[in-house]
Predict the structure of Transporter substrate-binding domain-containing protein.
Amino acid sequence: MKLFRTISLGLLASALAIGSAAAQDKTIKIATEGAYAPWNFTGAGGKLEGFEIDLAADLCARVKVKCEMVAQDWDGIIPALNAKKYDAIMAGMNITDKRLEVVAFTRPYASGMHGFATMKNSPLAKLAGTGERVNLDKDPQAAEKTIEAWKPLLKGKTVGTQGSTVNSQFLEKYLKDVVTIREYKTTEQHDLDLAAGRVDAIYAAHSSLQATLDQPEFKDMTIAGAGVSGGVLGRGVAVAVRKDDTELKGKFDAAIQSAIADGTIAKLTQKWFKVDMTPQG
């Protein structure tokens, strides 16, 4: 009996060890767009680079799992997650109520402003509130007053934005009767159209706009109007996972909290955005 118990315990320990090793050997696939600099982009030789590539490597090390980053077009990124083509999304994706209907999100790992960019010689460069910030949740009256102040200059203009994003949703909610909204597959495409004069302005995250303005070929562009956050623009950028994958969500939550606490996210956002975009609260 004692020998049998010893053998049984030995087999159980071996099974647990094998299970643990198998868990560590599992590769977590994380999708990103690969066309949203500096969050994520495709660099020389087709290599994925950017803030979220660096952050994913750090988070996966904390979780103690192997991770593989894969590129996926933005317009199919959530359906492919739910079809189990990969395990998570890190693609500058903001938490919104609409997205929470189909996926789960971790706690945010970054947050920032959204707004317009236009050419420096455009009348739209004088949009109200340039250099200021308004929040649709914390002070909705001030935010909506600012939006109302934009309308006379924006009337009849064409504004480019990436489709199926919080930016396109913002334009649809607040300005669809004022401007013509032109949606693009990537932010890179609307940047080029603004420079070529095919749209009057673009609307995007300030972090993405600043990365564009830093390129010599876009030196004649400028950010215009107040920066906006909250409301339809979401509650910060986070990792998206399938609703039933509570274990992976919990692991990433803990890893993000750790990366915030030890200053890693502050360091990485300073590196890629030249500003601390650590979520507050």
